[in-house]
Queue: 4 jobs
Job 1
Amino acid sequence: MILLLLSSVLILSVLAGWGEVIENFFGSLTGSVSGSILSGILGLSLIWTVLAFFIPINIYIEIPVLIGGIFFFFRKKLYQKIHQFSKKDTILIGGISLIILYSSSFYPYILDHFGYYIPTIKWLTEYGLIKGISNLDLTLGQMSVWHIFQAGFSGFSDPFLRINAILLIVYTIYIFERKSWVQLCFIPVLLLFSQSPSPDLPVITLSLIILNEIMAGNKNISLLFAYAVFVFSIKPTMMWLPLLVFFCSVFIFKPNYKSLVLGTGILIVFFIKNIWTFGYPVFPVAIGDFGFTWKPNPEVLKISSQYAIQKTYDMQYSYEEIQKFSFYDAVRNWFTLEGIKSKINLIFILSLVIFSVFAFIKKKKIISLICISLLIKSILVLAFSAQYRFFLDVFFVIAFILFIHFSKKKSLAFFSVSSVLVIGVLSFPNFIRQYIPSFRPGNFMAGLKKEQLYQPSTYHYNQFETFKTGNLKFNVSKDYPFNFDTPIPAISASYIFDDAKAGIFPQYIDEKNIKKGLIWKKLTPQEKTEAENVINNIKSTDK
């Protein structure tokens, strides 16, 4: 926790310094301290994304950025802006920040941290963006902009990968600047995402900031659209946000398509990044086939699509069973899943109904546009893969609009009580395991360790085996499904099985130069034997 505090002070200063520089070119979203930091996040994320096509985002990139950011921070005397807050608010911000840092010091427990976040960041820091990386491990094809941003600070200033905690502190500062008190009520829930560089936290916080700016009458469509597209580039299930800003520019503000140029540029970079790593413009959807040779094998994509459909039903039905569902069966079974997810699904639909009725009664154009945007997003998610993690943001948006005038006193009281509960769950997870056993992440919470008061808790496993098939020499975590600290190139065992089922295997385009990328190819008889030996070895180890 102490190291996190030092890390936060350093990174916030660097972001504010670079943010001031970036605002000289593009302007400021809020004209405040939090606005400068957000500009720094946006600017560095985009710069590092472009650089990642050519070079790794490692400590050699990080150190000059840190030095430059600190230089601009002191040159522009940004530390003086801290005095804009009253003494009472300064104490409250400090107290909430300490709660955030304490919560983020626990062991990571989100499974994607081990199977997706860390492997992605390892590739970015060692090689940058690799063409066709999804052929090695389909999950790596996402390469979220948020993980590129995290990679940029992972060498020296944030080696524990707690960038989400820093963003939560920025979010807190914004709340006090804008006096949007209801958003304090959201922080306790977001504390659950602060131990990992989960994309869910930035897309929720940034979308609420943009939404609040729109509700407050901010007419800077250029920056609002740019940030909205940036949020979409972090997680494409947030497509409702750029849609909303676009609708506002057309139906509320005077249409000026020049104001969409910056956001459109970000969108183009996002598409190019995905095509480079995945072969298609939007991961994981195989739409927009330009015939690139490094796109994933169709059979692997089919297996992934089937898995996504099974995840809709929390893996409680086989794909074959789901295919036989009538429309009535599909809806009924989704609402009657065993465990907590059926309750979340029900609350989700009820929330949409309540919000739609609210929008109809209010008859305010902005609320109607928010409702339409959320409905479009919800329909697409329900059609693709109706997992609660894809519509989690909808709950926050609806709660924000319905309770936008919540008072500071009530919000602080709610924050205090909820934070105690969340910290209690993180510290003593046996409680949630006992009373909500279907909340699976609770099974991976490790509880309080005294060492985390100095530095955040992290796991180390580093047990793996090395194999070779064709020209690809790769590592597989031993007796564990994820490769979070396995040296790269590493493949998850599940993807090896999928590749073998499809009769293919990933190969380097140029064995002597990994940066040239990966493709898939049909196995020769010799390579098929090699792949079978790998699978047999993995299966015997698992036993």
Job 2
Amino acid sequence: MNLTILAIILGIVIIAYLAIFAMQRTTIKKVNVFKLRKEQLASLKVREELVEGRKLSLTGQSLKEYQNLERQFNDVKNNKFLKIDQQANLVLFEARGINFIKTRHELARLEAMVNETEQTISDVRKGLTELKKINEAHREAINDLKKKYDDLRKRLLAENFKFGPANAGLDKFLSQLEADYDEFTRLTEDGDHATASDIYEQLAMETTQMENMMADIPDLFDKVDRVYVEQLNELSQGHSDLVAQGYVFPNDTINQELNAIDDQRQQVLKLLSELKLKEVSEQNGYIERRIETLYDMMETEMTARQQVTKHADQLSSDLLRLREQNSTLAIELDRLGQSFQFNNREIERRRTLLEQINAAEEQVNHNDDLLESSEMSFSELQAKQEKLLAHVSEIEAQQIEIWDKISGLEKAQRSARQFGGQYQQDIENIKHAVERMNLPGLPASYLEYFFAVSNELERLAKSLQATLVNMDEVQRQLNIVSADIDTLKEKTDKIVDQANLTEQLLQYANRYRATNERVAAASEQARMFYERDYNFDKAMDVLGPALDSVEPGVYEKLVDAYMRRKTPLL
């Protein structure tokens, strides 16, 4: 038992020893890696790079930046490398003991020191590289800007006619650029690259601005100094020519507008001399719209003149046609007025339309007078002509409407007479057909309807024979008679069918009168309705059920058989 415990303790001790040994070996390896990284950093030729940086003849802010880089490296060389060595020895010393936590802490601190030193050296080298690049860029920029300003100066001198009043402003702007360039060159030569960078950024922006202005100004100046002048002269001459040709412009202020536009153009030239190109572009837009408005105004009048000529010919032709139509209409109204009664004031309407035609002709003549006396523009006359043309079209539509209305009167009268004669013949045919039936009599309601239709036909005949025929009334009566004739035919057909069926039912009932009291009584009652009251429908209603009581379905069979055999009455 004791031996077992002893063996376990011994095992634990061995394991702990091995762990401590492994930890120590690992720590030593890591420390050696950090020492190797430190040696590699120390071997870099940063000092030589700093010496090369001094040759840049740095001053001002650039010198301050360089000195800061040098201080950072000296701190590494004189302090941080030594501290790294000391920290490495401390870690190795702590690794001999068993305080693992402290050892790890000191190892982490060593790693941080190495990392920080690496970053510092990297920043120093990058800073030196950047200073070299700036130095090279500035020296290259000196040459580029020198060439660019020489070119701009040559172009400004050679093409000064293209820039007009902007010449002085551009020359002043370029002179300021050249002064700034001289300062930039001095700072670069002195090695103050940081301050030179600020000036260079401003120079680059203003140089681009100068180039853009020299690119844009020629077109802007050409518009203001040549294009607009030519357009204003063209508009002025065009206005004078058109006025001489008889053109009139409503509220003619064209000359005043031309002067106002030219004043605005002079203001734009002043803006151009001040290099206010954005305002110049905006003002040019306003000028162009004002000029375009004047062109449109003149174009409107020239186009209107063409339309006026076209409309004048059309109005002359239309009014002549309307007057001929009205005259023909008057003759036809006079002729038809001997036979027909007019119900829609056709004669008065025709006279009113003639007055409107006369008024339209007077308006045309008045407009022509105004045009000849230069009191009306072509565009105003065009508007009046178009209004007159619309009125002329309306007059013609009304005259055609009257003509269509009256031109059909005689045809309608003949047609009405034909229908009246046909309806009279229908009445006679109905009367003769009923008489041939030898019925005991006819129901009072039927006779009343028959005579009412006959009276309507008489009234229709009288209307057609009147001294002045009212065709509206004739047509109304004709429609009534037509509907009533159809109804009379239906009533006649129905009465004849009912009378014939009653006779057949009475004959069929004779088979059962001696043997069936109900049939006998119904037969007597039905005969009374048939012979005395002429109520054939009632007779069928009494006799039909009685026959069905002795012979079921016989009533319907008799009715169906009759309807199949019957022939049209008319």
Job 3
Amino acid sequence: MTSPQLPRNAYTNAPQQHPNLILGSLQLVFWLFFRPTAWRNHLERIDLNLESNSSLSILLRQGRWRNLALWRFFIQAYFILPILANFLLGLVLWVLGEPIANIAFCVGLGVVVGVVIAVRFSMVRSVGITTNSWWTVLVFPFFTVWNYLLYRLDKIRNAKSPCLFRYHSAFWNELQYLHLRGLDKYLLFVIEHNTVEGELALGYLSITPQNWAVQAAQIELDLRSLEGCKNMKDIRQVNRNLIFGESLISQFLDDAFNHTGIHNQRIALRVFVEHLDEYLPSFGEQYDFRFRSIAKSWREIILNYVEELAKITELRQEIDSPYIIGVPLTEEQKIFTGRDDIGLRIEQLLRDRRRPPLLLYGQRRMGKTSLLNNIGKLLPSNIIPMFVDLQGAPSSASDHTGFLYNLAREMEKSAKKQGLTLPSLAREVLQSDPFTYFYEWLDKVEQALEQNTVLLALDEFEVLDNAISKGRFDEQDVLGMLRHLIQHRPRFKVLLAGSHTIEEYQRWASYLINVQVVHISYLKEAEARKLIERPVKDFTLRYEPNAVERVLQLTRCHPFLVQLLCAEIIVLKNEQDPSIRRLATLADVEAAIPEALQSGGFFFADIQNNQIDANGQAILRFIAAQGEGAIVSRQTLLQQFPDADITFNLLLQRELIEEVDDGYGFQVELIRRWFV
């Protein structure tokens, strides 16, 4: 429901004064005692200097006598209010039976005294009168009855605009600090039946002592939104409608539906259901019962939707793609394969008594983050991985407090996935002395570990280095903390992951001495074959032997490129007649190459734009033009590109080219085709 024009003084901290001099004067007195904010705003409208305690007479002498509003205030303050006050005094004395002569004398004396007081203090030096606490308690029962009657009347009127809600004592007695009983229900009723007035009332109450009612009403609205979800569309949209609560609902569901293929969507939705309690916003223990009911309803809706997806795939006789393109593989996604040799190497280094820090080094999209997400499968159970993506909240913090708080929070979340509950660390605790209190928190973490060891895996360490370079964090404090962790806490092992070596970041090399590099590169051929032919259980697509060999040739077992090409093959096969859909041929592989180059453009463009310079691009294009499998002699390249030794070394380091005999060629055929 929308509202027509509201009364001008409804739901505002800056009401307009009544145009009548006498009524306006009484209004000033009311504001002075009950609405000091309205009093201050009224003074500011007249003259900004009134708020700074300047005398009325001084302001008039300063040449502001042309200000009619100032003259009006002068008349009300110096004449009308003293006269009204003493008139009321005389009336009371007359009722009490005092002689007229005495009344006249008292009133006359009162007028003189009132004017003298007004002149002396200008009546504007106080910006509001704070009532005593006894007054608040004394009138509270009367306010409660008054407010309840308004609520009942508004319910009878169905909150017809303008609502009677504007007469509620919360809007005209801002000095009432006790919670006004029923205000939250009344506010909620107005919001539901009169949107315009409800929003205005929310804005007003949010900056008053009654802001508790705003929070309570907003929580109730959020709960009703969560309870009102009847299907997947409602659940996906609900987070955008929440007012008070903050949750990860939309983010995780959007991620789930962004997966290519119904298979991966089903996996992501099942993970969402398993962690549903973490994604729902938290409003406090008093709402736990309703949250349990919401979670139960949502689980039924999501699992039914997952079953529908499976039926759709079966009905269409489509091949369900399990491949994940562009995002790391999580522990729940069964497509992760291989890397046993890397897991064994990491385990050996973790047992080294020297406790060296580790660097998981490899080119982009080589599977570093996927490995870290799944490292728990490759290590003994007494080693607990705590994965922290430095590209996220920790490195985005503005100071050390934020960095350490986010670091601890990510460690807690990661440990929880391994079945270990760590003590919490509040941001407020870190404020005064961040690193000292962080070390104390680590002491508690070590106690919670019992006999286990932590592998603190910090992904994308280059992002943290960039934050240090920009001055957000102090190098000595942050890197010194990591060095202290490595040297003095044997229960903690540190593993960095990135696409650069420590030598490329000299500041790290000086703090992390004796770093052991674990190189992650292409999959083994057997691992790549499994990823192609049997990525998940009950995979329905079969390959001709020469088709598998061609995928291996084109990708060189690069994990991202294998998934990219195979995903496009499935898209192509699903467009074919069901009679030939389940067998991939060499022709299918060749037909999928242009689509893979297009859909994986972000991967190839990153190589071209971010990993090499213009000279490197020119060299790659020259080699690419020679055809598939071509090896160009070093002499020929130096004739074309003199003084390019540094560039050749960079291209070799980036694993884009390889040295064969006395020449160079592309390592990966699909990358070569991008540069043709």
Job 4
Amino acid sequence: MPHPLTASGPVTNTVLAAGTETVKAAGTVPQLVIAALAGVVVIIVLITWLKIHPFIALTIGAIGVGIGAGLAPAKAVESFGTGFGDTMTSVGILVGLGSMFGKMLVDSGAADRVVDTLVRKSSKALLPWTMALIGALIGLPMFFEVGLVLLIPIIVLVAKRSEVPVMKIAVPALVGLSTMHAFVPPHPGPLVAISTVGANLGTTLAFGIVLAIPVIILSGPLFATFAARWVPIPAPDLFGSRGGSESGSGSGGGSGAGSDPAHEGRQARRGRPSQDTASLPNDKSDFTRTITEPRSPSFTVALIGILLPVVLMLAAAIREATVPDASGTWVGLLDFLGTPMIAIGLAALYAIVFFAIGGGMDRSAVSKSLESALPPVAGVLLIVGAGGGFKQVLIDTGIGGVIADAVKDSGVSVLLVAWVVSALVRVATGSATVATVTAAGIMAPIAQGLSTPETSLLVLAIGAGSVFLSHVNDAGFWLVKSYFNMTVGQTFKTWTVLECLISVFGLLGVLLAGVFIS
């Protein structure tokens, strides 16, 4: 019997929805294939050419696929709505809580504390490795764009103070951030892929962290040596000091206070002013200045908060893998605490109490910080929900069954197919999130026949493909270019190459793991 990752079998016009209910194909096989291809093309054209928001593009494409495949218009809309609602139920709460936790981490000074402590304890030779660790820690709970803006002033200051080439500092930090964004929940991409293909979150989290370590090493500190030779640029003067008011001279940089995501939180947790008198000879006072220093949590408190949800979810996953039939009060408690919503919710509460209030923020500042955490993720949530709707349409039309049978008949590794589909959508649209939700929807029916570990590897293959070949249609490309004052060619030599390395090394790691698991 062929292995499910490279299986072959007869072509059918049905697919198992949610693993139980048989769905009859809405049209002929050619009609289904044409509808699916046309839908993906429409989504890509709307996003890249007409500059339509991905939420609208995915909605139009999904409903169009349903109608084109033979569903009644009302049924196509109903199918899309069902998928949208199911995905938001499983993913939306986690994204909202994760965003609040990340905001508390920044505004309370906990992120600053972790970064400053690690950098202070590193030698010049270890700095690239330390920056990779910092990028990974910052990337674990935060969205990519927020983490990038937070890391930029850290990278610049470390490069200037250490007199190490800026690319040796920047590349490892960016690799750590991007790798976590691609492989490790609770980022929206991995979360929606997990929900769509029915993977186990704890298992995927464990596999993602294990995979991220070699990927970060190979794509970060080791590649940074070559990047520093290819692009020997000076550290840009974007920030005079972290949270300062000095304006930057780089294109797109802006002022320190305006570009530093922790600035408002830092102002909110300044302690009582103290008087500092600068004296002239003969004890004559020249002037008296008022000093207020921001408070922040300790390094230990900050690190516990960052790792808390990871430890809880991993503990539940390990329990399930090692003693699946265990029962009792402690087992029930462990499973409850390891539930993703509970684990991330506890982390958010921990951040409010120990990060924010413990760091000197009053109730008004905490409320404002939590409120401001949600608007930036509204667009992400809509995209994720629309991706879930697109997936459900593919299932209800029977297109998923045709795709699944075609992949099985090809004899090609399902993991490689998932990576290729995700990478193609990423290159075409420039969005890792769109690539992930689209590829996950297409691959969902195939996941029905995979084991729990194999399904988690499928999620990681999709994540690896979603960061492949960042170029001029990716907002991250232009952010990195502007922050470091690089030319387009220099950005290709650094940022684009490191994203390709993350993607390819991630794929190789997934394929290697698939050999051992099979």
